[in-house]
């Protein structure tokens, strides 16, 4: 039985891609092949060494090790390139005060508010109502309201603008100019100032709610400018009523 096992073991071992000289059991077999006194211990050792060689090789263990090593991948994360729309949204969210305004836009806007503030301030310092200054303030307010309405046209006309040059956007840009023209037709400055207040409020509503793509710093600047303009117009109306009331009382006293 021992001699019949040698051809089977040799066929199984020599069909493998490895050399038998690497295993101690194979070397014992080659040396004591022709000897009749083969020990059972050597045969058991040979069978134990030759059995793994007869099994087909597989790459599944390597794939398993690769799957286990995947969670330990330590390469640096690749930064995703931001699109212009995302960068624009982030810039709109981050900039939200007058400090973020560009210097030319801030200084020119503040300089444009000087004629509004100067008229009621001059009347208050003079202590009397001046109809010429009040009419000049209303005229300047009409020009400003027309400019704010025309700014909608300039925003909607470019090809890459998010606002389309449709009936809604262009008509909304025309409404403040029409109201400003109506304000100049009133003989009473009070009625003209109130009409300008409506025109400036409508223009602010358009810029804040209907055009969300404006930068936030521009919206803040528009809110501050509109509040100052409307407050100046209402201050002129209040001073007109106050000084005219005092003048009428003085005339009554003189007549009495």
- In sequence order, what are the helices and strands, one letter per element? HHHHHHHHHHH
The whole-angstrom Rg is: 47 Å
Task: Compute the number of strand runs.
Answer: 0
Overall geometry comes to: elongated
What proportion strand? under 5%
DSSP helical segment count:
11
The end-to-end distance, rounded to whole angstroms, is: 153 Å
Largest sheet: none
Assign the structural class, choosing from mainly alpha, mainly beta, alpha/beta, alpha+beta, or little secondary structure.
mainly alpha
**How helical, in percent, are the residues?**
over 70%
| Average predicted confidence as pLDDT | 74
Low-confidence stretches: 16-30, 32-38, 52-67, 69-82, 84-95
Keywords:
256 residues, mainly alpha, 11 helices
Structure description:
It is a single chain. The chain is mostly helical and 256 residues long. It has a domain at 136-245. 73% of the residues lie in helices and 0% in strands. It has helices spanning 2-14, 24-31, 40-54, 60-69, 84-94, 103-112, 114-126, 131-156, 167-185, 189-210, 216-255. Helix 7 runs parallel beside helix 11 and helix 9 (167-185) runs antiparallel to helix 10 (189-210). The longest helix has 40 residues, at 216-255. It starts with a helix and ends with a helix. Residues 16-30, 32-38, 52-67, 69-82 and 84-95 have low confidence and may be disordered.
């Amino acid at each position: 039985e021992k001699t019949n096992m040698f051809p089977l073991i040799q066929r199984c071992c020599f069909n493998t891609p490895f050399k038998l000289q690497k295993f101690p059991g194979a070397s014992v077999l080659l040396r004591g092949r022709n000897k009749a006194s083969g020990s059972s211990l050597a045969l058991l050792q040979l069978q134990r060494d030759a059995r793994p060689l007869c099994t087909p090789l597989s790459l599944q263990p390597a794939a398993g090790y690769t799957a286990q090593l995947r969670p330990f991948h330590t390469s640096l994360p690749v930064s995703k390139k931001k699109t212009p729309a995302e960068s624009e949204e982030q810039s709109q969210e981050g900039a939200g005060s007058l400090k973020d305004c560009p210097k030319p836009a801030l200084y020119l806007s503040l300089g444009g508010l000087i004629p509004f503030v100067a008229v009621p301030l001059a009347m208050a310092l003079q202590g009397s109502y001046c109809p010429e200054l009040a009419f000049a303030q209303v005229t300047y307010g009409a020009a400003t309201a027309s400019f704010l309405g025309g700014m909608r046209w300039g925003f909607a006309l470019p090809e890459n603008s998010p606002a389309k040059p449709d009936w809604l956007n262009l008509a909304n840009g025309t409404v403040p100019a029409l109201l400003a023209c109506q304000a100049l037709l009133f003989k009473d400055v009070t009625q003209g100032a109130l009409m300008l207040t409506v025109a400036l409020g409508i223009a602010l509503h358009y810029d804040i709610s209907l055009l969300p793509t404006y930068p936030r710093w521009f919206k803040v600047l528009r809110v501050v400018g509109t509040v100052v303009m409307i407050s100046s117009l209402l201050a002129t109306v209040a001073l007109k009523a106050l000084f005219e009331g005092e003048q009428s009382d003085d005339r009554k006293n003189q007549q009495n």
